Amino acid sequence: MVEITSPRFKANAREALADKDLQRALTKVPSGFIAKRAKAREKLPEFDALRDRARDIKNHTLAHLDLYLERFEAKVKENGGHVHWAADAAEAREIVLKICRDLDARTVTKGKTMISEEIGLNDYLEEQGIEPVETDLGEYIIQLRKEHPSHIIAPAIHVNRDQVEADFRRVHGHLPQDRDLTAPETLLGEARGILRDRFLKADVGITGANFLVAETGTSIIVTNEGNGDLTQTLPKAHVVLASIEKITPTLQDVSQNLRVLARSATGQDMSVYTTFSTGPRRADDPDGPGEYHVVLLDNGRSSMLGSEFEEMLRCIRCGACMNHCPVYHTVGGHAYGWVYPGPMGAVLTPSLIGVDKAGHLPNASTFCGRCEEVCPMRIPLPKMMRHWREREFERHLQPATQRWGIKGWAFFARRPALYRAASGIAMRLLGAMGRKRGRFASLPLAGGWTSHRDFPSPQGKTFQQQWAERKR
Amino acid sequence: MTTTRSGGPRIGLFATCLVDLIRPSIGFAAAKLLEDAGCTVEVPPQTCCGQPAYNSGDRADAKAIARRTIEAFEPYDHVVAPSGSCSATMSKHYPELFAGDPAWEGRARAHAAKTHELVSFLVDVLSVTAVSAQWEGSATYHDSCSGLRELKVHAQPRNLLGGVAGLELREMAHPEVCCGFGGTFCVKYPDISNVMVGRKTDDIAATEADMVLAGDLGCLMNIAGKLKREGRRTEARHVAEVLAGMTDEPAIGEAER
């Protein structure tokens, strides 16, 4: 299981802010993704209408989730595949291990899957003597570095080129030490060469799924590197790891939702590869896996149905919310302390690991609303972060100073006469102290503010006092 | 809509707690702009819209404060506030706060329907196309998040600023990116907030404008406080002060002249 450091979000954030390499790498996020998505949206006048449709399709699906999941299972079986239901991470890991054991698997290749991160699959397989090999370039890089993804579609966005070169020289020790790796393409070529060999040796290939199609029993992945195709077609078995909300009723629905996915993620009209997998290799197929397994993971999602967090299950993992998040831009993905960073993580993580551990995440937002503005599924992310804050407030999980600060303010705000009397005195006092200079460099109880910026002085009498005097 | 002696609508001005406490001159600027546009302006007893409690998860206090506010403003044709974030709390979130409450849902909806952010009210409702104000120098405008995204305030302030004699408007890079204020966020996560406002003041400084304007005092206190701490000379003011031609008071965080 990925270690949870979400409770120490503040310390994580401070470390991230002090990390010069990370800060340099993070500048790529706003400069790259935002402009590309904006351009893709501009080119497609019906884009916002498609987002409405995408939202409606997913709402319909979630309202009938049991029906579509059962239909999917029946179709997969009909096609000769297997469906495994996993209530939690431990069950999912055991299912995958059993499939590997039954095939005497030693090496497992992996396409990009966040569910694998969520269930901590790589560490588990290694403990069991099975070698997992990540084949997505970004995932491969962070596997070499023994790290976790810091972004759901660009897992190694926090790593810079020089670091990758150093890692390749360290790990690919059999290659000539004097080789030239200055151009990014040479790094790519080297990874491709290494991975080619691993693809051919793998016994089992594991991928995620962007969509599961109930109508046909198909799993779909979108990639830009083609690694997913080699991962799933060459080995003896293809294992699909997917959470239950990935289900989509029909191919028609999928083709509609694909139109918003890549545009929101990378600004592409379509990803380079969109690969459909329906069952194991058939008698007249030229290639394909001998076995086809789908592991359907719940891990807390079914408890979100019918709650104020149900809409989060519409998420298609495009990453647009974190690409546009000014907080993500400053601290990066690792600070969030678990698998899912940024605004979608701020809502999903408390659902999956508990708000007692992930309480900082929904608070570390200014509610600027950019995430909701760009979400292709129109998920009201700030609203749901606020719902988490309500749960925390009910359970007294926030720091006491914060709670009593709000309570103290509310005490006066609920009592207009008292508020006017108290604020009238306080502002005249503060105004008298600060008006001449115009600002305070430090103020008692306001260290959070004045450690980084001055506090503008009040002008003196309150507006309500002055207005009353003017009317007299 | 009831009319008054002047023939214009009767406005309940919601000054916002920050303007009430910190910078009353913005309230007077708002009143002047509304009166110049033919409105009758009144200021009923008021405190806060309840947003700090609402966004901190304290629904009970948020509702109690909201009920006070709704009651106080029931007599007016419109509620107008010189703030996108307080206006959005009232116009977008009050109905949500009282959803399913038979006694208050209707009243919250009525309050929401008549609540407006100041500059969009002038332009979109009163059809004001120009103001008679003058300010010599260059200015850049920061879009506060709630006003921009919840209330679609974007072109209105720029259009009116375009008519201020002597004022040259310069767009900064990323005017739509949050300044890092975020209400209680800036004190809950001061390190992150500091980086965000630092990026904002860099973008502002790069325009070499004399002044930065915005429609929310919270953002402006954050931006002005950072500009001062960095020793920069850019002034910060609420857009209403410039549109009303009321710039005699020192700018935000500025010493008395």
Automatic annotation (TrEMBL), chain A:
Keyword Transport set for record: yes
Skewed-composition ranges (Polar residues): 459-472
SUPFAM superfamilies: alpha-helical ferredoxin, NagB/RpiA/CoA transferase-like
MF GO annotations: 4 iron, 4 sulfur cluster binding; metal ion binding
Keywords: 4Fe-4S, Electron transport, Iron, Iron-sulfur, Metal-binding, Repeat, Transport
Origin superkingdom: Bacteria
Name of one Pfam family that matches: LUD_dom
Domain 4Fe-4S ferredoxin-type: 305-336
GO biological process: lactate metabolic process
Region (Disordered) location: 451-472
Matches recorded under InterPro entries: 4Fe4S_Fe-S-bd (IPR017896), 4Fe4S_Fe_S_CS (IPR017900), FTHF_cligase-like_sf (IPR024185), Helical_ferredxn (IPR009051), LUD_dom (IPR003741), LutB/LldF (IPR004452), LutB_C (IPR024569), NagB/RpiA_transferase-like (IPR037171)
Keyword Metal-binding tagged: yes
Protein name: Putative L-lactate dehydrogenase, Iron-sulfur cluster-binding subunit YkgF
Species of the source: Lutibaculum baratangense AMV1
Taxonomic placement: Bacteria, Pseudomonadati, Pseudomonadota, Alphaproteobacteria, Hyphomicrobiales
Automatic annotation (TrEMBL), chain B:
Coiled coil: none
GO molecular function term, any single one: oxidoreductase activity
InterPro entries xref list: Cys_rich_dom
Signal peptide interval: none
Recorded GO CC terms: cytosol
Domain Cysteine-rich: 12-90, 140-223
Record-given protein name: Putative L-lactate dehydrogenase, Fe-S oxidoreductase subunit YkgE
Lineage: Bacteria, Pseudomonadati, Pseudomonadota, Alphaproteobacteria, Hyphomicrobiales
